[in-house]
Each structure stands twice: as C-alpha cells, then as structure tokens.
Amino acid sequence: MINRGSSLREIAPLNVEIGSRRCPTDMARAPSTFRQQDVTRAVKAVSAAGVNIARVEIDKSGKITIITANGSAAHDEGKEGNEWDRM
Questions:
Q1: 55 bridge partner residues
Q2: pTM of the predicted model, to two decimals?
Q3: Which of 58, 70, 75, 84 is least surrounded by Cβ atoms within 10 Å, i.e. has the fewest?
Q4: Number of structural domains, the chain?
Q5: Which domain holds residue 12?
C-alpha cells in the first residue's frame, strides 16, 4: 500500500532505459565454450578415419569427446550383423 507522504521512487526504484540500451537488471549470457562448427569438424574427421561414432559429449569447459562404437557393442544390442563384419 502506498502512503500519501511517500513518493513512488522511494518504493520501487527501477533502472529501465528505453531504446537500444540494455536494462541493468537483465543477466548477461555467458560466452559459449564451443561452436557447432567445432563439433561438426571433429565428427567429420572421425568419420573420415572410418571410425563409427556412438555419441558426442561436450563438458562445461568446451572439451569435445567423441565416444566410438565398436562392432561387438552394436551386436550386443540385438542388432543383427554379418558374421564377416566382426573378422
């Protein structure tokens, strides 16, 4: 409730500016630690080497880890393959 003797500035100070300036109450986004092109480049390099990729993990620091898939893991998941693929 607003008292008659108090002004609006004393109750709720706001730091809002109109135009292209940002409001100081907005939080800034942290800089990205990796880019999509970094992931794409790493995946293409591993694929070009003939290695099957199971998944890609990226930690907070931006370290890109590519987990490879071997033939026995794909066979254990119930996928049928050719017996000559495992030789």
A1: 67
A2: 0.49
A3: 84
A4: 1
A5: 8-86
List the one residue out of 61, 59, 83, 79 whose CA is nearest residue 69. Answer: 79
Amino acid (one-letter) located at 56: V
Read off the pLDDT of residues 32-64 as tens digits, 9 standing for 90 and up: 888 999 999 999 999 999 999 999 999 999 999
pLDDT at 38: 95
Answer yes or no: is 27 within a domain.
yes
CB 36, CB 45: distance < 8 Å: no
The answer to whether position 3 is within a domain reads no
| Amino acid at site 75 | H
Q: What does the mean pLDDT of the chain come to?
A: 75
The confidence score (pLDDT) of residue 84 equals 77
- Return d(Cα 43, Cα 68) in angstroms, integer: 11
The tokens of 53 are what? Answer: 């990729």
Does residue 14 form part of some domain?
yes
Beta strands in the chain (DSSP E): 53-58, 64-68
Residue at 2 is within a domain: no
